[in-house]
Amino acid sequence: MTTSQRPTLPELARQALSSVQRGYDLLAPKFDHTHYRTPDPVLEATAAALRTGGGPFGDGLDLCCGTGAGLRVLGEVCTDRAVGVDFSAGMLAEAEPAFAAPRPPAPYRVRANAHALPFRRAAFDLVVSFGAFGHFLPSERPYLFEEVHEVLRDGGTFAFPMAAPPRPGTAAYWSLLAFDAAMRVRNAVWRPPFVMYYRTWPLADVRDDLRRTGFDVALRPLPQLGHRNDGSPRCRLVVATKR
Question: Methyltransferase domain location, by residue (predicted)?
């Protein structure tokens, strides 16, 4: 990666002082050269877990697809349509190569808000999402899950990876705490808000909200991504099945 491929500090500052949608429109041309893009090992581990646990699936949706990295997962585990939805026109434009992938039928993209998915009821067998949930406040989580529940067929799967939280007192713990604190200060003094938090989706609360929405929830370790010192996995796949 060259320096010109990475976003500069002024570019990141301009993004952070914009709305979420405008910020991603601005960042889109360089997004895949940042650490915000979901790493390939996470995508590969997710695809492997879905292949061995319920796949293959029919129609698949990548929720908040960004530049389309998650479409690789749908391409590996779905036999029919692969659809990506995102509210950033800039990100969808950068995703064009992903949607041109040679798989029948060809994937397609839809610009829409995740709170108002423009699909008929029971349209998909699988919904995945990668790295987008920090943009949703805890109060929004039940509504987001209801949208996913609506577009899934009975017995359909909603799957997304969740990393184990860093241990209190570690450098990673303080780093995420500082980031979230800085975002709260920014949003208190600047408009429009830019919603992005790392510590607002604890697993226990996520699981409870999924169950209340009408999902059965299972956790699948992703051992390819390593283990912590106590032997627990660094990352799990949350697999929510529509009752």
Answer: 61-156
How far lies 39's CA from each of 44, 83, 152, 180, 206, in Å?
Answer: 9, 20, 26, 22, 22
Residue closest to 209 by CA, chosen among 145, 166, 147, 150: 145
- Distances from the Cα of 56 to the Cα of 7, 17, 60, 127, angstroms: 38, 42, 10, 13
Omega before 56 within 30 of 0, i.e. cis: yes
Residue 173, H or E segment: helix 171-189
Taking 60 as the threshold, does the pLDDT of residue 22 lie above it? yes
152-163 β-sheet, strand order: 108-111, 82-86, 60-63, 124-129, 152-163, 235-242, 215-221
CB count, 10 Å around CB of 139? 8
Give yes or no for residue 31 having a pLDDT over 60: yes
pLDDT in tens, 158-189: 999 999 999 999 999 999 999 999 999 999 99
The burial class, CB within 10 Å (0-12 / 13-18 / 19+), for 77 is: buried
- Say if CB 82 and CB 38 are below 8 A apart: no
Q: Domain locations in the chain?
A: 37-165+202-242
Residue 95 contacts residue 68 (beta carbons within 8 Å): yes
Distance from the first to the final alpha carbon of the chain: 45
Cα 15 from chain centroid?
19
* pTM score, whole prediction: 0.92
Identity (one letter) of the amino acid at 190?
Answer: W
Confidence of residue 108 (pLDDT cuts 50, 70, 90): confident
**Residue 55 half-sphere exposure toward CB, CA atoms < 13 A:** 23
